[in-house]
Amino acid sequence: MEQKKVLLIGGTGAMGMYTIPELLKLNYHVFVTSRKKRDSDNPSLTYLVGDGHDINWLELIAEKYFFESVVDFMLYSYEELKPKVLRLQKLGKQYMYSSSYRVYADCESFITEESPRKIEKLKNNSNLADDHYGISKALQENLLLQSELENYTILRPGMTFSRNRFQYGAMDNFDIIRTVRGAKSALPETMRNTFTTLTYGKDVGSMISRLVGNPKALGEVINVTSDQSYTWEEISGIFNTVFGTETQFISDKLYTQITNQWRTMIDRRFNRRFSTEKVERITGLDFSAFPSLEEALREAWKESNHQLFYNAKTNWKVHADFDFLLDTRMSLLNVNERNQTIYLNELEEKKSEIKDIDENCFRFLNSYWKLRKLPWNPYIELIRKNGHLLGKAQKGDNRWISYYLGNSELRTRTQYKLTIRMKSNVDAVLNLLITGGGKIQKLPARTLIGDEWTTLEYFFTPVMRNLSYLTFTASDFILNGSKIEITEITIKESL
User: Mean pLDDT, to the nearest integer, of 442-455?
Assistant: First the structure.
């Protein structure tokens, strides 16, 4: 009996690499498009060298072979797919289009195939339009949903990992590269308790292979994801167990500024727990037989080329920013001189800049102070421009200047370390306060010696919620021209 034929367009990625052996087990003859020449030692596996975006080339192949199914893993723009979607559908009896879980809007419950997509929620939340990938995938789905042919199957895979490719936070492999070079990683604080689903490419391959040629899958949208979901804090624990990844949770603002992954972060803040009832019913697969996330990660890591992570091309400037923030260092062993220079220069520049300080974050409750940031000085100056109104301290004269600590979300029952690098031009006893919402928490008084740079460290646990300002009292610097110079204000959990 002649083998049925399946065409995988762009089938050498994280999902395709596992779909191929699953289809071979089911006795299909598998054809795979590839940009480069690949050898096959299996007579049922044929690699076709060419451009999977070239529809004319694909039609020539389809004229030669009759395909039971075409599984399309290619990445398209809407403008590219629209004029050729019908031609793609005609390449075989079944056309399987790889969409994405990112089409879904936020969902507190388990996501089914009927759950709202971002594109349907744009009127209520225009910010969703900035997730270009999720919106584009939904528009491309619509081309099939409105097609005159109903031979399509729309696949919605979740975050999928494979050997040599591990997704963590908003980036692929970046954190594993840091891990193998002995450095910490970071995740945004708002992701800590957000649920996500990581799916092993091998499991996705099993699902797709059972949807190929399956009449129950025609005209359907199907989630091809794991049924296991975890909070990102739980994920960080699993990554620590498997890879040794140490993770620190930081503010969204800092994470997004450093990584520049603000589009991806729109989606990462959403809960991602999936119903797999439909794919289990159509394929007949027993999901309880799939490995746990930890087991799957261990297997994928064991099969990975670890040297690829150690020698990977990576953004050394971003790594330096992370290392400066997390007080950690990447190993530079076997890193070329150019990249070492990029990394070390970035760290050196960070030492001289105002860390996490924005002059716009200072607020003045009176006219006692003025703020100055000179371009040639690596510090902010706060200058007392008025003395006491009558030449001596008056009741109610203890005015404040406050610095907004940002989206720090200080939590009670959590110890923090506050670090301030500053200098005063006069001797002063500094009485710092943590304030917010009309509430005040005093910190221990510290003595400043005039004209000496001092690094002050405070360890404290918030005794109330909504504290968000670091406050200086004007009475500590009572003379006209009293000046504070600040190069650093940082606050982080005390580990």
Answer: 90
Q: Residue type for 134, please?
A: G
> Each residue of 189-217: pLDDT tens digit?
999 999 999 999 999 999 999 999 999 99
HEC string for 209-277? HHHCCCHHHCCEEEEECCCCCEEHHHHHHHHHHHHCCCEEEECHHHHHHHHCCHHHHHHHCCCCCECCH
Q: Tell me the C-alpha distance between 347 and 305, whole Å.
A: 30
Question: What pLDDT shows up at residue 409?
Answer: 65
Backbone angle region of 260, left / alpha / beta, with phi > 0 → left and psi within -120 to 50 → alpha: left
CA 205 – CA 22 distance, rounded (Å): 6
Please report where in the chains the tokens 């504290």 appear, as a residue.
467
Residue 443: what pLDDT?
93
Distance (Å) of CA 48 to CA 10, 23, 66, 183: 10, 17, 15, 41
**Residue 197: which of 153, 170, 231 has the closest Cα?**
231
Q: How many CA atoms lie within 13 A of 461 on its CB side?
A: 6
**pLDDT beyond 90 at 268:** yes
Q: In this structure, what token pair is assigned to residue 421?
A: 């690098």
Residue 82 CA, chain-centre distance (Å), reads: 30
Per DSSP, 111 falls in state B
What is the widest separation between alpha-carbon atoms in the chain? 105
**Pair 469, 408: CB distance under 8 Å:** no
pTM score: 0.73
pLDDT(80) > 90 = yes
Chain mean pLDDT for the chain: 90
Q: When comparing pLDDT for 237 and 262, which is higher?
A: 237
Q: Residue 422 in 3-state DSSP?
A: strand
pLDDT at 390 (0 to 100) = 41
Q: Residue 340's CB: how many other CB atoms inside 10 A?
A: 12
C-alpha angle with apex 183: 181 to 186, nearest 5 degrees? 130
Q: Determine the 3-state secondary structure of 333 from DSSP.
A: coil
Q: Which residues pair with 152 in a beta bridge?
A: 95
Alpha helical stretches, state H, 15-54: 16-25
Distance CA 151, CA 89 (A): 7
Q: b/e map of 160-192 (b: 16 or more CB within 10 Å)? A: bbbbbbbbbbbbebbbbbbbbbebbbbbbbbbe
